[in-house]
Amino acid sequence: MTAVISEHIQISPEICGGKPHIAGHRIRVQDIVVWHEQMGISPDEIVSRHPSITLADVYAALAYYHDHFQEIRQQIQQSEQWVQELQAKIPSKVEQKLKGMNLGED
């Protein structure tokens, strides 16, 4: 018997920081989950936006997510926290310009 998910999902230390990803791609399982669950993008739409992956890849990623729920949720939280930390350290260029424009109005 062939393990279907292992045909579609890989974990390699040198790819995607060792996070589970679509085999042969740099699309992480957590990316599929965010697109589908948080952004409401259907599996068919994900494939149309990323035509190098298959519908089977997307469903394998979602199955992997449900089999490893806590692990993937933690990875998503860590990524979101990292983004927030970067945003706090690196101010938005737009915000800087707007602040500069507001200072000039006084």
Provide a descriptive summary of the structure in words.
- The chain is mostly helical.
- The protein is built from 6 helices and 2 strands; from the N terminus they run H-E-E-H-H-H-H-H.
- 65% of the residues lie in helices and 4% in strands.
- Strands 1-2 form a two-stranded antiparallel sheet.
- The longest helix has 21 residues.
- This is DUF433 domain-containing protein.
- It holds the Pfam family DUF433.
- It comes from Roseofilum halophilum BLCC-M91.
- InterPro entries: DUF433 (IPR007367), Homeodomain-like_sf (IPR009057), WH-like_DNA-bd_sf (IPR036388).
* Secondary structure tally: strands: 2
Estimate the strand proportion: under 5%
Mean pLDDT over the full residue set: 88
Gross morphology is elongated
Specify the number of helices: 6
What would you call the structural class? mainly alpha
- Spatial order of the strands forming the largest sheet: 1-2
Q: What's the helix-strand series? A: HEEHHHHH
Describe this structure in a few short sentences:
By secondary structure, the chain is mainly α. It has 6 helices and 2 strands.
